[in-house]
Design brief:
five-stranded mixed beta sheet; 1 helix; globular; mainly beta
Amino acid sequence: MIYSYNTHQKVISNLIKLCLGLILALLLTGCAGEPTTTTQATLTPQSTLTGQTDTTPTPGQTHAVDPVHSVSPVITFPNQTPDLQKTTTPDYNPLLPGQVRPSNPKAELYNPGPGKALPKNTLVVGTDSGLYLLNPTGGPEKLLVGGASFMDPSISPDGQNITAFRRDPLTRQSQLVLVNLGGSLKPVTFDTGGIVMAAAWSPDSKKLALTRATDTNNDGLVDVFDQTSLVLYEVASGKQTALAEGGYGAWSADGLRLAYIIPGATDSNLDPTTRQLRRGPNALGVYNFSTKAKRTLLESKGQLLGLANASFTPIPPDINLDLRYFKSVAWHPDNRHFTASADAVGPSGLRAGIILTITLDDPTPRILTAAGDAASRVTWSPDGKQLAFETIPQFPVTAKSANQVALLKVVSLENSAPVRTMLGAAATRSETRRPVWSPDSQQLAYLSGDTSILTLADATGQNPRYLLAGCQGFDWF
């Protein structure tokens, strides 16, 4: 069939009239004044999946809301990215199982007032936004001090004061401050200049053993490569007393002695192992407050250590290791032994982190265990039965080099034993560091991952729980 021009025009005209008629009918229907009858449809629920429970409330029944585990739902459509800026979120993000959240700058202020103590079994955590009090069993954190970045908090044994390093937001320099539970801060400074590198509370909470450093190597910086001195600081009066050359002190349980590290000389050459300025052999010393005497107990130079009593993979048991440099020192709870971490080297470039123990009566070193390239941050559980320390990498870094928390359970002070547990994995760079025991010795806290997640595990290092991200040090009261 062939359409003429006139026929085509008639078809178009008829279509237009039809459309106009439909539009007019719709308008008239919408404007009708008579009510329409609405029939409510009955919704038939779909079959419930196996293992699920139909939680649709019946008329007159409401759901109880869990304030900890409830979140605002975000509805998305297929192949569409949700607009996160339009999602309503509360000031406090609840911690869901398996999730990690940052600290909350709008957290409730904790201010019981001066003279009060922290609640037992609580954590103090330093972050970029402030100093927080955290309950390890759950719940939102509380703000102790805000408005600045705080690092490496340490709680006094009576729970009434905290030391922490406060970082200036402009200069990025850190300064030790005393924080009481009323929220006030007192900077800790030296009469003769220098900065604080470390601080340790005395058992009576009245004094601090401070590590003071000045720019002794004339590189324009005050850091760990400068010579240090041990200074006693009285908290109430601010009085300072120089005790000895050295630093990084550890108090005996009776408060009568300080174990510390006596530094070796530093020169301008690079250490082939650390790739930092070479440091000479150092030593372990002890200061006696009763006699005001200081004594060198053990020098790292010339110490050959055997591991014949245990198998330390990949260290063969029939070789000797040359002790190089002490990293940290801690007293055992028995008040007799004190323990040091160190790095050591063996034949063919072998490296090992060593944990050894000595006593005041017998400074002959006994090897407890070994792990990693070097060892640091040694800490005993309060019951004296378990030992945790941090392994640290040395140059050149290999696939097995990493910061990892090592755990040795049921430790004998007389015999060596291999490490039982290494937390994290060097191969995947899931690093762990800064171990701290709970007061009852039943849990171990540490930082994990690149975002410094505060992690709690049981005494064997298993069943980790992740509490807070962005932590810059913590302490457990």
